[in-house]
Records
---
Amino acid sequence: MIKRETRWKSRLAFVARAEMNNASVPMTEPGGSDNDEAELILDPRVQESIGRSLKAHYDDIVNAPVPDKFLVLLAQLEAQEIRAASGDMSDERL
Amino acid sequence: MSASDFKDGLIKEIPNLRAFAASLSGSMQLADDLVQDTLLKAWGNSEKFEPGTSLRAWLFTILRNTYYSLYRKRGREVQDSEGTYAERMATHGNQESHLDLADFRKALAKLPEEQREVLIMVGATGLSYEETAEICGVAIGTIKSRVNRARTKLAELLSIGGLDDLGPDRKTAAAIQRVGSEIVGL
């Protein structure tokens, strides 16, 4: 959360600086390695919008009804295991 | 962990497995095959799951490995047409957000796999960067870098600045269009 806020501020400062210089701000900042967290920063509002769409896409499927076949499959697997276990027990009794 | 607890855990994760599998494969039909394989493998290897660790992360690892070893090629061959994919998956919401969601999914499907999977894991599933890094077998820095590249590429594909292409929230879209014009001079 704190990190995000800091990014917001640094991004806004970046935009403000560029506006003062009357220059256009690139979508991505040049340079930066894989591990450089500040390498590539989209406008936070763009990030938020993408984040919302990602959740909308994902949650749409998460909230869809689960096909019965998965529950049937797991019930069968469990029943198999119970049968195997009780089979072992009756063997012991014999 | 008893078999019954393990089963309950698996049942709870099915919706997330389906959403992740669909995001990976781009097809709801392949996704459900992939989830079925994942459940079978998880059941057969339940003794390898360490109670107290994240079941979701463990299952995602299995699903992802299964996808890359068995499904990736099939996915490319039989991938649903974009329309079918979007229609089948958009289950609720009004027409407007339905269209936005369909557009977003088309753009998402165009991302390279390695970027798409991490964006989904970090951005939608509730998994941490650490867990995502572990699932993918790469360093956290690599995950962060892929997420950033994925976002930038998505912004490009959705041609940010175009009100109709942006996503469910029009107010945000409008704000971004303004910001976008300032930033990229559109």
Note: Residues 24 and 107 of chain B are 13 Å apart (CA to CA).
---
Amino acid sequence: MKTAQLVQTSLEFLTDRFPIEKMNVNSLVRTKEVPVHRMSWAYYLGGLALFLFLVQLVTGLMLMFYYEPTVSDAHASVERITEHIGGGALVRNLHTWSASAMIFAVVVHMLTAFAMKAFAKPREITWVSGVLLLLITFAFGFTGYLLPWHQIAVNATKVGLQSIEEAGAYLPGAMSAWPGALKELIQGEASVGQATLSRFYAIHVMVLPLAFFGVLSLHLLSVQLHGMSQGVDRPTGRTERFFPFFILKDAWLWGVVFLVLFVVALCLPFEAFFSYPLFEAYDAMGSTPDGIKPEWYFYFIYYPLELLPFWVIMLAQNAAIAVLLAAPWIFRKTSRRALGVITVAVATYLVVMTVFGQQIYEMFKGGA
Amino acid sequence: MRRMVLAAMWVTAALGASRAGAYPEFQAWVDGQTPRNVNCALCHAHGDGPDGVKPGQIGSLSPEQLAALNEARQAFEPGQQVDSPILNEFGDRMVEKLGRTGIIQLRQRPGDLPQAYGFESDLDGDGIPDAREYIDGTLATNAHHGDPWLLLRHNLKANWWHLVLIAIATLLGLYGINNLLAWFEQAIGGDEEAAEGEAGIMKFEIRNSKLETNSNSTILK
């Protein structure tokens, strides 16, 4: 009886979330309306993230033509792309800058969706798939960072993988061996080497894009089926048609962002912001340059990791992921005003840690 | 006999290196000058300096390269062409401009090197003089490395025509999308008014503002 009830409840849940009667052009495109209010700008962030992902896809494909995923040739092939292939520096910069822009867009999209309570029934699947896309995007960043095989890439990856293994010390019994096994599975050998590069490359160019496409399809279908959430506690009653007006504005935003991205990629090499020894070919027997850090979008977890006990960060990180995934049920009765306050607090933490993380670290540790 | 000559050349080169092959005073000055970290690759072929057996270090040099190194080491006075296998292009140019004697004298006051070297040379063509790159701790031999603000200014000037073209292309693309959407709306039987005649963005915007007064949709929950 209980099983039958469970099946019935599950079926009802899925029927509500994927109403077959709405799966037609009329509902998905022609009659869809988008609410207009003071937070309407946030509706464009998801599309922006999608556009930046497409830029990643196209530029990544172009880089694949020349990149060689071997420890002996990876760095040289990246240098070749930058120095000797026509338009190579531009494509590589587009890939790098748009990766950062995509992560920024995805995080802001998540924060605004949270503040607008976009996870409320019947949009739970939209939200959960969005959180999965966020995690996949971070995984893209982590795996892509290693590929140029330069000093900062390899050393930062070592630190990242090491932290997985350290988690084992806080798990009971046989479970304590799991993180180590996971690290070995990702790493492929005793230390970061050819097997690691091969695995990261495969994950970066094949596994993650496939997973991204799958989850993205679910996310977009869900968004189209249920429309945008009302966004504010007191709806204005004003709406605009999704097609063609919202789409058109989306296209113009994409155009503007593309132009900005192009100018930045052409005129501002990403590596100019760093010390050059960090971009020399990784040398296992050579000296490790100062300033090894992960990419800026991991600072929010990197600096606390440097300052606080590992178990605190591990607990906080896992709790944060669990809360994010379960947000539709945890915050079911929370007002948008309260969600807004939580969002501002989280956003403040992220900005402070990203921008002032180094200063905070030095303040507590007394020097870099 | 040939082996003995080569061995003698290698020993001479190696001893030379320990005497005057690397001048860490310059690196130390730059390190104190800028928040960036620098290493020997500022002037040398290898980041760890000339001593060792890796590419660009003395221990890895072929007999021909050792001969080139010894020749480069004879450039005590300015004006001699230098192509040392353990120096990068900036290091070579420095020896050409200042001579080894000049460089050895500057070891005591490495902050004077930019003035002595001059601000005319820009080896990588990134718009930032080599001497300025030395002060900033950036690579004078890499056009993609330099002070970000200076690079941006230079690249904007150098690429303005590309930027104009890409802006025109993007605008044309958006104009095309504009029309495509209007056509598509007509094709799926949308608002006929939108598909009539021109379907520029202005028309969409005007219609959009009208639509904003619509009542709330049933899609909202």
Note: Chain B is about 55% helix and 0% strand.
